[in-house]
């Protein structure tokens, strides 16, 4: 497994496993504490694992947490997703940068998203399972959502949106969220 720093987002990493394939299919390690530790992250900091299943065109996000934020490891374990990270850490040298990833069950690559970054994805296959490993217990009172179609972010979502949550559909713009943070 190799770890590669994401140039667009300071502190973000892409962990790419080495699958061993044969006539039965494949096997690969999707988490390795030593590799995580080698880039300065604490592998024991992750407290929750979650899984979402989406159908083609479903869009989830853009989400982040207020307060101390939430770091996470994200992997598409089955199918394929278009994954988006937006750096919203005011002190970061990559503040407001965006990065896009094609995550799939074929590669089993895992994306580390630092606390303070917004995250969202769109399912590109009929079924897409997305796994999350999160470093804090979920507190719904800290949930923040940003409009997926905010023109300031200009995210090139690859498919028309077929479904999204009410919360995501009614999300405020990035400017509105930042204004609320300042208050």
From TrEMBL:
State the source organism's domain of life.
Answer: Bacteria
Q: What species does this protein belong to? A: Streptomyces melanogenes
Pfam families per the record?
A: dTDP_sugar_isom
Similarity field: Belongs to the dTDP-4-dehydrorhamnose 3,5-epimerase family.
Residues covered by region (Disordered)? 164-183
Provide this UniProt record's keywords sorted from A to Z.
Answer: Isomerase
Q: What is this protein called?
A: dTDP-4-dehydrorhamnose 3,5-epimerase
Whether Isomerase counts among this entry's keywords is: yes
Under PANTHER family, the record lists: DTDP-6-DEOXY-D-GLUCOSE-3,5 EPIMERASE, THYMIDINE DIPHOSPHO-4-KETO-RHAMNOSE 3,5-EPIMERASE
Q: Which CDD domains match?
A: cupin_RmlC (cd00438)
The answer, when asked if Protein transport is one of the entry's keywords, is: no
InterPro entries referenced in this protein's UniProt entry, alphabetically: RmlC-like, RmlC-like_jellyroll, RmlC_Cupin_sf
